[in-house]
Design goal:
Layout: H1 2-18, H2 24-55, H3 60-96, H4 101-116, H5 121-145, H6 156-173, H7 180-191, H8 199-204
Helix pairs in contact: 2-3, 3-4
Length: about 210
């Protein structure tokens, strides 16, 4: 019976510590690390699973290992970035006595440089994912602040047309400039659909299965 009571006492002490406001900033950094790891795993694992089994060759073991590696890398990077960002924000606020908007930019700037600065496949995917959303947000902010005239018509159809026109032109005539994963996806859609031999690789499989 001693063990359960000791465990209850430990949990009580931990919960008491978690409720202390004086430790809130430091504890928020730790929980940010936890949330970054969990969220990174949640969004990378399904993506890696689909992309690996759709485009990657190799044995089942090699594919599963690739999925685990990609998931761990994404999860680890996001956890470390959130840790660095929240820690640097808290440090700046403590040093200057209050929070300024520039704190957020500087913390994310140096966190991004340290964690996502290497030109790797996963970093490239994450950075480009953010870039599209940042550009959208800056356009909306520009309209909101009056720096950009508010459109009198919905520009989204034109935006969609330009994006698709450019990406297919790049794929057809300047393919090496596109990210490898995007090249693989577009090859599957637009080139593999030009080749078949019979009903098996026309409708059931993408490519003819090797004969045994």
């Amino acid at each position: 019976m001693a063990a359960p009571s000791q465990l209850q006492g430990l949990l009580l002490a931990v919960n008491t510590l978690l409720r202390k406001r004086r430790y809130h900033a430091a504890l928020a950094v730790l929980k940010g690390f936890r949330n970054g790891a969990v969220y990174g795993a949640k969004i990378r694992a399904p993506h890696a699973l689909v992309m690996t089994f759709l485009f990657r060759s190799g044995s089942l073991r090699e594919k599963l290992w690739a999925i685990l590696q990609a998931t761990y890398t994404h999860s680890s990077k996001l956890a470390h970035f959130v840790f660095a960002y929240k820690g640097l924000c808290a440090l700046q606020s403590r040093v200057q006595g209050k929070t300024y908007q520039v704190h957020s930019f500087l913390a994310a700037f140096f966190g991004g440089l340290l964690v996502f600065g290497d030109n790797s496949n996963i970093n490239s995917q994450i950075n480009m994912y953010l870039l599209s959303r940042v550009l959208f947000a800056l356009c909306r902010l520009g309209v909101e602040k009056g720096y950009i005239p508010e459109p009198k018509w919905d520009p989204f159809p034109l935006f969609a047309a330009v994006v698709w026109g450019l990406v297919l032109w790049l794929f057809e005539y300047h393919r090496p400039t596109l990210q490898p994963s995007l090249q693989s996806s577009m090859t599957y859609l637009y080139e593999d659909s030009n080749v078949w031999h019979d009903i098996s690789d026309f409708l059931i499989y993408n490519k003819r299965r090797p004969s045994k």
